User: What shape does this take?
Amino acid sequence: MSLRAKINRRLQHPLLLVAFVCTAALLSLGGGSALAAVSFDEGIEYKRVAEPKRLEPGDDVEVLELFWYGCPHCYQLEPAIERWLENKPDAVSFRRLPAAASMRWIPHAKAYFAAEQLGELDKLHEPLFKALHEQRRKIFTDEQLIAFAAEQGIDEEAFRDAYQSFAVDAKVRQSAELVRRYQLSGVPAIVVNGTYITDVTEAGGRDELFELVNFLVEKEQAAAD
Assistant: This one.
C-alpha cells in the first residue's frame, strides 16, 4: 500500500480526518509535507489485545507469528520474516506459534511442537511448507504427518511419542487459549509483546507489516523505560 493510499484510508475515519486536516494545516505553515506526517494508528493498522499475554515471559519485547502450515499466505510471508530477522531490533525475541484455531489445524500444530520438543524443527518447518504449497502434497492427518517427519530423517517412533505426549497437548491448549485472547481472525498474524496484533492486510503489505512491527517494538520499549 502506498503512502497516499494510507492517507486515503485514514480519511475514511472521521476522527482521523480531523487530526489529518489539523496536521496538514500546521505543516503548510511550516513548509512541511502532510505525507511525511503519516504514521501507524491503533484501530487502523493494528489493534490492542483486550487480554494481553505473551507466549513466554521475559524483559525483552516478544514478536510472535501465528501461522498454519496449510495457509499459502503464511508460506509467502516466510522470506519477509527471514529478511526482518537479519536486522531485527535489539532486545527482541522472535517466536512462532502454530495456531490451534480449528480441529483441522491441530495436527499441524502438534507436528510443530513434536519436532520442537525433539530439537528437529529445522528438518520439519520449511520442508512441510514446501511439500504442501510447492509439491501440493496432502499432509493433514496424524499418520500423514508422522510419516512425513520420518521422510525428513526424524526418528519415527520418537516423533510419534512426542506427537502423542502430554507436553505437546499442553502446548496445543496454550495455543488455543492465545488464539482466543488475541481474537485471531486469520493467519498469518503478528503479535507484539502480547499487546498488539496486526497482519499483512491491516498493515498494507508485507514490507509495511515489518515497518509496523518495528514501530510497535519501539512503542513497547518506550513504555518500559
In short: Confidence is low (pLDDT under 50) at residues 15-38. The beta strands are 47-48, 61-67, 92-98, 189-192, 196-199. DSSP finds ten helices and five strands in the chain. Residues 206-224 form the longest helix (19 residues).
